[in-house]
Amino acid sequence: MSIPKRISDKKKTEFYSLWSLFEKDRWHILAAIGIFFIKHSPVWLMPLLTANVIDLVVTHQRISELWWNAVILALLLAQNIPMHVAYMKQLSIALRRMETRLRFALSNQFQKLSMGFYTRASAGILQNKVVRDVESIVEMVRQMFDGGLSAIFNLLGAVVITAIRVPKFLPFFLIMVPISAALISSMRKRLFAHNSRFRKEIEKMSARVNEMTHLLPITRAHGLETNELEFMESTLAKVKVAGLELDNTNAIFGSLSWVIYNIFNVICLISAVALSYYKIIPITAGDVVMLTGYFTSLTNAVMSLVNLIPNISKGFESIQSIEEILQSEELEKNDGKLKIEKVNGDFIFDRINFIYPEARFPAIRNFSLSVNAGESIALVGHSGAGKSTIINLIIGFIRPDNGRILIDGHDMNEIDLRTYRRFISVVPQESILFEDTIRENICYGIGAISEKDVETALRDANAWEFVQQLPEGIDTPIGEHGAKLSGGEKQRLSIARALIRNPKVLILDEATSALDIESEKLIQESLSRLMKDRTTFIVAHRLSTIQNADRIVVLDQGNIVEIGNHKELMAKKGVYFRLQSGNATSI
Length: 587
Ligand SMILES: Nc1ncnc2c1ncn2[C@@H]1O[C@H](COP(=O)(O)OP(=O)(O)OP(=O)(O)O)[C@@H](O)[C@H]1O
Fold this sequence. Notes:
By secondary structure, the protein is α/β, with parallel strands linked by helices. Bound molecules: adenosine-5'-triphosphate. Adenosine-5'-triphosphate (ATP) binds next to α10.
């Protein structure tokens, strides 16, 4: 699928941005406009034909004229059916293709943006861009077509026909239409304040409902139902008051605008009749009806265009919101770099320093370490010592500010990280499982895999036994985020997922939460199978994991303060010794 890298040039107008979205479908858009013109013609030709028919009666013309007008009217009306279908088809093709392209472009960009970007942008906001923003652009274009085009064609039709048939009446339109439209729209503006207050109360209520549903287990567990309901009641009361005020204002302004609107129509009718009666302008009886009809349609057209403004500005806001993502420069640059075909797992960290963009102190300082393929390295230290930062540097989510990381002798800055990451497996602290079967979760992202391999991975991860007991075995759905599984079971599935990839580099971020002794034992066993013959970096909290590591790197404020195996470091009676003494089973 082709992707609009930039949907607009920053210097160009918002309409240009919109036009750029339809880069591949401009012909469909132009066709839709052309067909709309034809399908909509009865609306602006009807007053003219009505005028003809009335004049025919008043001036006693031949009756054949009536049949001609009837035939033209019938044809005009009949064409509306096929033309409307054709119009909808063209517009629909353009819109559906544009929304698909845009959503794909955003998803594509999400896969390329550097991980630093995601520490600032919340998942909810990003999701909104793909779902809501694209939706409001589509909605805006639909309204621009359905409401906007019909208003523009009505306006043009009325002005052109009046200019041809009763040119002297045109100045009346040019004065009265803007005045009546301005009056009505100024009244609507007052409604805006009430509308906006009501919308804000609704937004507050939906945030409150969201919060309430999330808090349900805590509320119920602490017996706080009454407090929660009181809180909810006051929120709902505010929505009710704002709603009542809005309804009331709507009723007053609605009737006032209707009256003003009709007064102007009556003024048009009376003026046309008076001008005709006193023979100031030669206007026939049919013309009077036609001019009144056009005046109504002109006022309607101007009002529709005014009413479109809020939706248009909302749509443009969405275009801007999407552009922020599509034009972001924070991309991981991989193109043209060395593609890795094989990884042994030798690492050299050469005087690495790293500071987060908005941090005051470096997270990693002068970190140097040489790791042989197959070695297991446990990273330990207090919270904030820099363990996760090292892991993110190893995965390439962040780059050192200075210093180098060499993988099998290749500088990490010079390789295509996507190819290197195929040889990595990550077992995160919180198991990332999705709402599908066990099989889908384990085989995520890898091609065809034999039943035997899935079974072996599950057995090695000590997960086979519990999976067998599930109603549909490995094809059992596990619920959202694996909701139907225990913490230990989720961790073992994460280990099975890592095993099936047969990685050369393994990254384990141990969960801090304690498991029961049985689960702990099962996980330790499966971890040792997983770590065998692989370079492993572990953010270690469990004493058993730390003891089994080949080397333990003790970090403090981003510095390596001690390195060695468990025995050596315990004998040293330094930072590691004190960390261990602080907690007998975990750090
Ligand atoms: N995105 C960020 N922006 C700014 N500072 C950050 C960011 N992430 C981490 N830090 C800071 O960098 C330092 C190292 O953080 P890091 O997450 O690597 O520590 P850690 O040892 O993994 O801690 P923990 O055991 O609590 O997970 C800390 O001082 C932390 O506050």
